[in-house]
Amino acid sequence: MQAALTREEVVQETRAPQTRWLGYYLLLTYPALLATMGLLLRDVGEIETAGAMFLGAVFLTYGCTYLLPLAAALGLGAWLASRLGRAGGWLLGALAIGGAGALQFGIYLDAYLHHVFGFHVNGFVLNVITTPGGLRATGGNNSTWLTLAAIGAGLVTTQGLLALLAHRLAASHPLRGRARWLALAAGLLLALGLGERAAYGLARFYRFPPVLVASRALPLYVPVTFNKLLKRAGLEQPRAPEGLRLSEQIRLRYPLEPLARRADAQDYNVVWLVAESLRADALEVMPRTRAFADRHALRFTHHLSGGNGTRWGMFSMFYGLYGNLWHAFLDERRGPVLIDEVVSRGYQLSINTSARFSYPEFDATLFSAVPRDRLHESDADATTGWSCDRDNVTRILDFLDGRDPQRPFFAFQFFESTHAPYSFPAEAPLHDDYTREYNYVAVDMQAEAKGLHARFENAAHYLDSQLNRLFAGLEERGLLERTIVIVTGDHGEEFMEHGRMGHNSQFSDEQIRVPLLLHVPGRGPAVVESLSSHLDLPATVLTALGVSTPAKSYSLGQDLIGAAPRSWAVLSDWSHVAYVDREHVATYSLQGFDERQGVRTRAGLPLAQPQRFEQEIQPRLMEIMTGLRRFSR
Question: Nearest-5° angle of CA 221, CA 222, CA 223?
Answer without folding.
Answer: 110
